[in-house]
Structures are given as structure tokens and as C-alpha cells.
Structure of H+/Cl- antiporter ClcA:
Amino acid sequence: MKLKDIEKSTNKNLYLLFLSVLVGLTAGFLASLYRLALEKAETWGLSLYRFVSSHLIFIPLLILGLAFLAFVVTFFMKKYPMSSGSGIPQVKGQLQGYFKNNWFTTAFAKFIAGTLAMFAGLSLGREGPSVQLGASMGQMVSSRLAETERHKRILIASGASAGLSAAFNAPLSGVMFTLEEVFKYFSPLILLTCMTSAMVADMVARIMFGSGPVFHFQIVGSIELSNYWLLIILGIILGFFGAFYNWTLLTSQNLMKKIKSPFLRVLLTFLVVGATGLLFPNIIGSGHRLMDSFSLGMGLAFLCLILIGKYLISMVSYASGVPGGIFFPLLVLGASLGAVFATIVISLFHLPSHLFANLVILAMAGTFTAIVRAPMTGILLLVEMTGSFDHLLPLALVSLIAYVVADLLQSEPIYDSLLDNMLKEKEIDVDDSDKQMMFETIVQFDSVADRKKLSEIHLPEGCLLVSVHRSGKDIIPHGNTELQAGDYLTFLIRREDEVIAREQLRQVLNEK
């Protein structure tokens, strides 16, 4: 493996920007194609359920069809296990060195199985698969053109940003999600590549789907400061809801695993969703049509029924491990909860009816923050998806309170929990194709390494610190070098030691 890092060369920005553009183009096209396929599949699936509900004689054929779809999806899940589930935990695990991945088979299986699951009506989203599809395109480009393992992973992360950007027409959210959820630290190099890929992918998506926002809420006015106490209550409710959602999702997965046969698990899921599609089709599928239909005139009882029904069908859909995300369904759940809350408070306190849409949007951001624990992504996502900047302050307030409440309840971020479960369930298949690699980490504020000399820090055996990047300059490290919060440290390690080295460095550098 070549250890020459192109980041040190004079043309580093041009080269990385060129690779990022390629990643954005390929990831944006594939994620947009997947988005189009899901929209068509959902439309055809709902039409099929409407037809069968009017012609009950075809129910046996529907059951046979669902069984066939379950068989095909199970085949892809067993043959290509990296294609199962959301895709975001898999990308995180790949970037952290836990998994190796074949980009082609994963992308192919994810695309086909995810589309079939949406055709069957499962309550799954496109964002997690889009992130994984984008990461696969980043892996494709980087495996041919990137020189170092570090840059390969940065381009994979750029592909993930591009995938989310194309899924929602939300480039800023795609960048922020990668920084806030995947890496959990800020790096100028990562920001540069992710932003480039996300912007290019957004351009591709806008060519295919237009420039309009994903959601079409009518924002007429803003919430008065005198009514902000309602936002505090909303944030508290969403914090509890997010913690309960995470617990229920993990518990339902554990219960579903008691069914030893993967095919029976998937078949049970498809049959439950099929029965729901015949009896209550409003709550199956991604929920995009449902979200657009929310209004104050729907009535409190019906909104509560939708909230409970969508919650249950989402748990059933994801627990079996079928390829598909939880990102969009949890936004729909947040909108449902916000609609219930808005209906109650508008009636009780005689508030203007146009605040209904405001409260729905705020609830979506708060729910996302409480579940995923990425507040900035949630705020930016709702701003970009609604096309309105009129509610930044209330978005921040609700998200902050929801975050704090969920944290006090000791609810772990859902994607971290899902990754932990994946690592516990299977023998970790670490990619050891390269003998040596470099990776970057940051010295966090208020950490044990802040203001300490290198001679006072016991680095893991076989872990070599090759560079300290501070204030735009590279420092050659030695024993008397004093680390500072915000320093970017570049380490050289053996590829086979990556997993344990990352964990040990986290403890040595950043834990109090």
C-alpha cells in the first residue's frame, strides 16, 4: 500500500474535489433512481391493495404474491447480509473498520430488495438505503482512484452525504449528518469532500425531480413568544417518545429474532403489512402521502388512530431486518404526534389554526433529534425539506429539549444501538486487505489529552502518531509536543489492529 498522502501535495484540493464530483454524480444518480423506483413501487402497491380490497376473491393470490416477495427479499438478505436493515449502521461500521463490503452486490441487493419491500407496503424509508447506496458509489470511485485508505473512507463518507442529499433534496443536511452522526467530529477535509458530493448529488436529484421542497406545508405565521411554553411541553413529550421508540424498536428486533427462520420472519412481516393494507391502507408505505394529508379537520380520534397504527406497522416492518430505513417513517411519526398535539392545544387555548403546520414541523425535528441524537441535522433537514426559514428558533428550542430529555432517560442514539446489535450478533468480519493505514481523530474539548504532552500519554502499541494538524499547519510530533483541544491527529497503524486501536485511542485521548 502507498503511504504517500495526497493531502500533503499542492494539488490536494483539486484532486479531492475531482473525486468528490465523481462520487456526487454516481451517488446522486443511483439514489435518485432508487427514489424514483420506490415512488413507483409504492403507488403500484397501494393500487393493488385497493383493487384486492374491492375484489376479495383475489386475496389467495395476494397471499401467494406476498410469500413470493418475502422469499426473494429473504434470498437477498441471506446472500448479501450487508444489504439488510437501514444501511446507516452498516456504513458506520464500514468506516470504523468493523465490516468489509462489496459495493456492487450490496448496492444491487439493496436496490432490488428495498423496492420489493416498498411494493409490498412496508413502512420503511428511502434515506438509510440511499445513504448506503451513495457510500457504495463512493467506495467504487475510491477503490480505483484514491491512493490511501484514509481517503477511500473519506470518499465513502462523501457518497453517504450525497445519498442523503439526493433522497431529500437536502445537501446541507447530507453534509451535517455525516459530520454529526457518522464521524461525530469536524474536519475541514471531510467537510470539503462531503459538501462537494452533496451539492453535485442535489443537482442531479433536482434535474430528475424538480426544485420544489419535499413537504408542502403552508407556513402562514409564526408562533408568538408568549406561547413558547407550549414548545417546552412539546419538547418534553418528544423526548419521552423518542426514548420509548428506541426501546420498542430494539425490543421488537429481539422478539422477532426468536423466530429462527429468516424467511418466516420476513413472511410474517409481509402478511401483517398485507392485512393492514386491506383494512387500513393509510398507514402502510413510506407515509409521504399521509404527511401531505394532515390537517386540523382530520379530528383528534382519527389522528390518534393514525399515530398508533403507523407506530405499530413501522415496528413490524423494521424488526425483521428487511432492507429499508427508519429515517422517513420516524419523521412521519413525529408529524403524527405533532398533529395530535396541535389539535389539542389549538382547541384548548384558542390558538390560530395556521399554527397547525408549524407544530407539525417542530414535532418532526424534535422526534428526529430524540431518536437519532443529531439536532443540527434535524433542524437543517426540516428547513430544507419545507423550504421555510421562519421557524429556526422554535426548531432549535424543541430539538434541544427533546435531546436533553432523551439523554436524561439514558436512551442511546438509535443508529449506535443498531450497530452495537450487529456487532454482537455476528462475528466481526474486518477487512484486512491492506497491511497499514492512516486515520484521523480529533482532540476534544475538556478531554484527558487536552494540554498534555505526548510523553504523558500512553498510546496503544503499534499506533504511530505521524502528524498533528493545528490552525492550518502540520506539526511533527515529539515527546514534548503539547496537545490542544481541536488538534487533528493522524495515526499510522496496522490494518488488522484498526478496531481495537480506535477504541483504545478514544479512551486514551477523549474520555474523562
In short: Residues 1-10, 427-434 have pLDDT under 50 and may be disordered.
